[in-house]
Design goal:
Helix content: over 70%
Strand content: under 5%
Order of helices and strands: HHHHHHHHHHHH
Radius of gyration: 17 Å
Number of helices: 12
Structural class: mainly alpha
Largest sheet: none
Number of domains: 1
């Protein structure tokens, strides 16, 4: 588990960063919405605590999409007026407020899907507009991004293991990658590119919700790893549909 925390997340951050350099901040945000961090966290929690515990954590992770987007909205608007430390404080503060509200919701898949769906529909309407796609710039900060991502993941997973299924699910969706992308993009390219990231991330989070919905439904009803396989297939299918509806050829046009 420790090896995965120290390798999978930093490597994924490297992939997202390189994709952002090649295709722009929107594609980086799209990839950042995949359950690369939260997925392994919930799976390992379920291995340790049992599939029923994992199913409840998966339901909480779905509703936590709203908290992830609240962080993004708060950071994007704050970054227009303030430097990154103040924007980060605003985003994290709003995330904790949202998580506190989400933690008292009924542990119901229907409620979680309704909350996540509403947040995914509303977020593009309240985010500030993204700027024109900009080149990715220097990769000198890539090691710092990777180290930051690994440290955030270690801290969040360490806390999640002691707080029960609801907060395990919520903390699994703590915006670790979102923080790394937002802060480093804000510093290097400005606030409009941060908004561009979160517009892209909304599209990626549909597959995120599908992944955890499949886990919540399948873990109590079938084999552990079979359920994980179904969840991966569900996420890929949903992402293919979302990409097909959002003109992927234009989105993946390389930067010049």
């Amino acid at each position: 588990m420790l090896i995965l925390k120290l390798t999978v997340v930093p490597l994924f951050i490297a992939v997202v960063t390189l994709a952002g350099r090649r295709w722009g901040a929107g594609v980086a945000g799209l990839l950042g919405g995949f359950p690369i961090v939260a997925g392994p966290i919930v799976v390992f929690v379920a291995l340790e605590q049992g599939p029923q515990f994992g199913a409840l954590a998966a339901i909480a992770a779905i509703s936590a999409i709203a908290g992830l987007l609240v962080f993004g909205i708060a950071y994007c608007w704050a970054s227009i007026r303030w430097p990154w430390p103040a924007a980060l404080a605003s985003g994290i503060g709003c995330w904790f407020l949202a998580a506190a509200v989400l933690s008292i919701l009924p542990a119901s898949l229907e409620v979680a899907l309704a909350v996540a769906g509403a947040s995914l529909v509303l977020t593009p309407r309240v985010l500030p507009p993204g700027g024109p796609r900009a080149a990715g710039g220097s990769l000198n900060d890539l090691p710092y991004r990777m180290i930051t991502g690994a440290l955030l993941t270690l801290a969040v997973t360490g806390a999640a293991a002691t707080l029960g299924e609801v907060w395990s699910g919520l903390l699994a969706v703590f915006p670790s990658i979102g923080i790394v992308l937002a802060v480093f993009t804000h510093r290097a390219q400005g606030p409009r590119q941060v908004a561009h990231i979160y517009h892209g991330m909304v599209k990626g989070l549909y597959s995120f919700g599908g992944f955890f919905a499949a886990l919540a439904v399948c873990w109590p009803r079938m084999g552990f790893w079979s359920a994980c396989g179904v969840a991966v297939l569900a996420a890929l299918a949903i992402q293919a549909i979302v990409q097909g509806l959002s003109s992927p050829n234009k989105a993946l046009q390389p930067m010049r």
